[in-house]
Write a structure and sequence with these properties.
The complex is a heterodimer of chains A (about 300) and B (about 650).
Chain A lengths: L9 H32 L15 H9 L3 H19 L1 H12 L5 H39 L2 H4 L2 H34 L5 H14 L1 H27 L8 H32 L12 H10 L15
Chain B lengths: L2 H6 L34 E10 L4 E11 L6 E7 L11 H4 L16 E9 L5 E2 L17 E10 L4 E11 L8 E3 L2 E4 L5 E2 L1 E2 L5 E2 L14 E10 L3 E4 L2 E8 L2 E11 L4 E4 L3 E7 L2 E7 L4 H22 L6 E5 L11 E3 L2 E3 L6 H4 L2 H11 L1 H6 L8 H20 L5 E3 L2 E3 L1 H12 L15 H23 L1 H14 L7 H11 L2 H12 L5 E11 L5 E5 L2 E5 L10 E10 L6 E7 L4 E6 L5 E8 L3 E6 L15 E3 L6 H18 L2
Parallel strand pairs in B: 1-13, 19-20, 20-22
Antiparallel strand pairs in B: 1-2, 2-7, 3-6, 3-10, 4-5, 4-7, 8-9, 9-17, 11-12, 13-16, 14-17, 15-16, 18-19, 21-22, 23-24, 25-28, 26-27, 28-31, 29-30, 29-32, 32-33
Helix pairs in contact in B: 3-5, 3-7, 5-7, 7-9, 8-9, 9-10, 9-12, 10-11, 11-12
The chains are: A mainly alpha (about 300), B alpha+beta (about 650).
Chain lengths: ~300, ~650
């Protein structure tokens, strides 16, 4: 580490990019519906805190009075949300560039990310279509199984859920492959088909490495969200006080930040798994330390056959 | 109880007509000491039924003993042949907008009942069925409600016996009754007499999807003959069980009821427990053990809760039938000492739905079973009161989260009911015949929800204890009887008072509504005297004080009562320094102006801050604020949810 240098590491920058984008998008999407509900709740005792009172009388009343404006606002927000979620490929591409080339300037990463966005979009669209196809086919096949004719209600449903785990894993695996493809592309394999081939080769030849890097980010995110549910239950926001709202906001944002950190950790893993080289910029100072800490790996763990940085 | 005791035990006397002046009930009915032990037996049935499980038919025969308990001779009888509702698609049931009913598709296999003979020995043994009308009295396309002319009138007080035989073809279940695959739920399956009122009026009506019950009390002695492998559940006490030649014969007997239903299915599992002195059988599909446990817990709670509130459950048995998942149309029904529930096998693990439906149907044992109101004319008297009873029992069992209970979110079932009731708005009068409701959603929101919320409002405004006492007095006084709306209102008036009774009458019988609205909140500094004042011949000049020096404020808000339903309400005034005062308005008039002198300016006014008037049409106009606060809690929660969704669905 270069002494006296204060600079965010690549992972930290990648995390902030994605978290910042997510927070801004969430705010933009949530605001119109909030205004609509807020206008209804304004006449409740205590304003919108009445919505959180035990019993739910004001909550259901707001939903009743707010129909149809609230669903319409949510529907509109959902459309914007989907578009902005798709737009999230851009900060993701920039983040991957930052992770790949920690010493490059942010402007350089933005330029490279922008150039990569169209290919990422195509890969994303293909993945979503493939996932939709798996879900459709699986739903049809599972729905046609005559389980209830020879099993009782519970056993039939349990078996159905068990069988549904296979396509669910398939959908998840498609997402993993997409991430590996992104890693390959950022690491130098520009053509998506070649990147896909290399990603599949990685999956086939080193499944243990993939799983080792994947399990914590995959399980950690839902566990964090679940933990937040129980952690915030004790804070009764139906009572007056801005501090309560602030505390819940802080907890929720910590959870989101944690999820983004885990996701970034996985992307670092995906980059390391890529056959192309990951830059280990010796002049990166703090960035290297943070990156190593987040990946849980030592620099030497990066594949020896990685290509040199561009 | 010995036979002699039973003979000497007090019996209810069925004397009520809706047009009679309601009698005073009195405090004697506030506890169980005044409960009649037995009903006056008017229509009793001794029947035998043989089920052909392959053909889905029932061969039935037996004897009906009927007493003309009215003041006039009866020249005819009225029979309800309700399985004929499924005979063709022209019947009242199937052609009505509700006709598809719970099955969602209407009839797929027709059902009917053919009476082969009905002989009255007291009338020379003639087959009176030869004089039976082929069609329902007021509906030529329906065959569910037929008149049978008698060779001679039955004198007041006279009892006749009718030896009857019939064949029933069960329909595939459209709603409540019939078969589905190898499951049988058999209700409305035998020729059943309509009820004759004390003044000699027959209350008879075709089978309508939303009403079917109004009968006289009596004793039932029914022998069921089914395939040996069937598990049977039925109204009454199983007194005999005999298996031979591949057939199972079970005999069920019960007094003081007005209907009989049964079920048979080879795959039933069974729980059997004695709760509060009542033998409770739960019949349920394999894999539904958690639902069975939840059902038993609800029955245990319900027998105690309803027993304390409305008089003890008088029968020694209760059978709860949980239909298989593929036959939900048979679920959620009430018959004397037998109820049906229904839910997916996992329901009890994630929600209180099983307890709710069990408590609702169990509540019907009081409001339908014991207090046998006319469901056809006044459905709110059984479904509405039962909904209120169910809500009370659920709250006692689960607290504020009796509707939904999730971490950080408790929803009371009454919040949902209020929502449903408010959605009906001004759709019409609650107290009207079931057949006059143009859709099930209107019937549901008015008869079930609005009645429940009207009673909840009475409890919250005039006192829970007073309403509880009134309902208890009503349920005990009219046990084994047939009261109408006037009797119900009269007990409310007697116990809770005129204001509450007028409120209930207005809300349920007259279609009155109420919507409180707060408007025009203002707060101004109090003006002190300034100008020229002549005092004792001397003119003084008082300079106006600088407004900043004034330390008093005058606040005002207008509260309107829209609608014609009068109900007292509280109004809370909130000041800038956080202090509050509460004022009450008796609800007289259309407008009340609330003014308040205070040291801190008025910033908000909220009508009904404690949520007493749940029947208020719109809670979102109950507040007036000087400066609306930003919905920071909603924004925080919505932002977080969107962030999580972006994480789950985004790149």
């Amino acid at each position: 580490m270069r002494e006296g240098r204060v600079q965010l590491g690549a992972s930290a920058r990648a995390v902030m990019l994605q978290y910042g984008y997510r927070l801004v998008v969430a705010f933009v999407v949530a605001y119109p519906a909030t205004k609509t509900i807020g206008a209804i709740a304004a006449s409740f005792p205590g304003g919108d805190r009445a919505l959180f009172e035990p019993g739910g009388f004001y909550l259901l009343e707001a939903l009743r009075v707010g129909s149809p404006p609230v669903p319409a606002a949510i529907e509109g927000a959902a459309v914007v949300g989907v578009l902005l979620a798709f737009g999230g490929l851009f900060p993701l591409a920039v983040s991957l560039e930052v992770l790949r080339r920690p010493s490059a300037s942010l402007g350089d990463a933005v330029r490279r990310g922008a150039a990569r966005f169209p290919t990422f979009a195509v890969v994303g669209a293909v993945t979503v279509l493939a996932q939709a196809a798996v879900i459709t086919l699986a739903s049809g096949a599972l729905g046609a199984l005559p389980l209830h004719s020879f099993l009782n209600e519970r056993n039939a449903d349990v078996l159905l859920v068990g069988l549904a785990a296979a396509p669910a894993l398939g959908v998840f695996a498609l997402g993993v492959v997409e991430d590996l493809v992104r890693g390959e592309m950022v690491s130098g394999t520009e053509a998506p088909l070649s990147a896909l081939f290399r990603a599949l080769q990685t999956l086939r030849s080193r499944p243990g490495d993939v799983l080792r890097r994947l399990w914590l980010p995959s399980l950690g995110a839902p566990l964090l969200a679940l933990a937040a549910v129980f952690a915030t239950t004790g804070i009764d926001v139906s009572r007056p006080g801005a501090l309560r709202v602030s505390a819940v906001f802080a907890m929720h944002q910590l959870v989101v930040l944690g999820i983004v950190v885990l996701r970034t950790k996985w992307f670092r893993g995906a980059l390391a798994l890529a056959n192309s080289a990951v830059a280990t910029d010796s002049g990166d100072g703090l960035a290297v330390d943070l990156d190593v800490a987040m990946s849980g790996a030592i620099p030497g763990e990066i594949e020896p056959h990685d290509a040199p940085p561009e | 109880m010995s036979a002699l005791d039973a003979e000497c035990a007090p019996r209810a006397v069925q004397t009520l007509r809706e047009d009679e002046p309601p009698p005073s009930v009195g405090a004697a009915f506030d506890d169980d000491r005044s409960l009649p032990v037995h009903a006056a037996a008017v229509a009793s049935y001794t029947l035998e039924a043989k089920l052909d499980a392959a053909a889905r038919t029932i061969d039935g025969k037996g004897t009906i003993r009927w007493k003309n308990a009215s003041a006039k001779a009866a020249p005819e009888l009225y029979f309800h042949l309700y399985l004929n509702a499924f005979k063709n698609n022209g019947t009242l049931f199937l052609r009505s907008p509700f006709g598809e009913s719970r099955s969602g598709h209407g009839a797929t296999h027709w059902g009917y009942v053919d009476v082969t003979h009905a002989v009255v020995p007291e009338m020379g043994g003639v087959d009176i069925w030869a004089n039976a009308a082929a069609r329902s009295t007021d509906d030529p396309d329906d065959e569910t409600d037929v008149a049978v002319r008698l060779p001679r009138p039955v004198a007041p007080g006279e009892t006749i016996t009718i030896d009857v035989a019939w064949k029933s073809q069960l329909p595939e279940i459209v709603e409540r009754t019939g078969y589905l695959r190898d499951f049988f739920m058999v209700g409305q399956w035998f020729p059943k007499l309509a009820r004759r009122e004390p003044d000699g009026t027959w209350v008879h009506f075709p089978f309508h999807p939303e009403s079917e019950f109004y009968s006289d009390f009596g004793s039932y002695d029914v022998t069921l003959d089914v395939p040996e492998n069937m598990v049977v559940g039925a109204t009454g006490v199983r007194t005999d069980e005999h298996v031979a030649a591949g057939r199972r014969r079970e005999r069920y007997r019960i007094d003081d009821v007005h209907d009989f239903a049964w079920t048979a299915w080879a795959s039933f599992e069974e729980r059997d427990e004695t709760l509060d002195g009542v033998r409770v059988r739960v019949l349920f599909p394999p894999g539904n053990d958690a639902n069975a446990d939840a059902t038993l817990a609800a029955v245990k709670h319900g027998l105690a809760f309803y027993g304390a509130a409305y008089g003890r459950y008088p029968y020694p048995v209760l059978t709860v039938v949980h239909p298989p998942e593929y036959a939900p149309a048979a679920g959620g029904m009430e018959y004397p000492t037998l109820i049906t529930t229904g839910a997916p096998w996992y329901a009890a693990r994630f929600s209180s739905f099983v307890e709710r439906i069990t408590l609702h149907e169990l509540g019907h044992q009081w409001f339908y079973g014991l207090v046998a109101t006319d469901e056809h004319s006044w459905p709110f008297l059984d479904e509405g009161l039962t909904t209120y009873a169910e809500s009370s029992a659920m709250r006692a069992m689960f607290g504020a989260g009796n509707g939904v209970h999730l971490p950080g979110l408790d929803v009371d079932g009454d919040a949902y009911l209020r929502n449903l009731a408010a959605s009906a708005g001004h759709d019409g009068i609650v107290a009207r015949p079931a057949a006059q409701f143009p859709s099930f959603s209107e019937l549901g929101s008015l008869v079930y929800a609005r009645t429940g919320i009207v009673l909840d409002t009475v409890a919250r405004v005039w006192g829970q204890a007073a309403l509880d006492r009134a309902l208890g007095r009503y349920a005990r006084r009219y046990r084994f009887d047939h009261p109408g709306p006037k009797h119900f209102i009269a007990v409310i008036r007697e116990v809770v008072g005129d204001d509450a009774a007028d409120f209930v009458e207005g809300a349920l019988l007259e279609g009155k509504t109420v919507d409180f609205v707060a408007k025009d909140l203002e707060a101004t500094r109090t003006r002190e005297k300034a100008g020229l004042f002549d005092r004792d011949g001397v003119r003084e000049t008082v300079a106006p004080k600088d407004a900043k020096d004034a330390d008093r404020y005058s606040g005002q808000v207008l509260v309107y009562r829209h609608g014609n339903l009068r109900v007292p309400v509280d109004v809370e005034l909130r000041f800038e320094d956080g202090s509050t005062v509460k004022r009450n308005w008796d609800g007289h008039g259309d407008l009340r102006t609330f003014t308040e002198q205070s040291a801190s300016p008025l910033v908000a006014a909220n009508i009904d801050p404690d949520l007493r008037v749940l029947i208020d049409d719109d809670l979102a106009n109950n507040g007036a604020v000087k400066k609306p606060s930003f919905a920071s809690r909603v924004l925080e929660r919505a932002t977080y949810v969107v962030e999580l969704l972006l994480g789950a669905l985004g790149p």
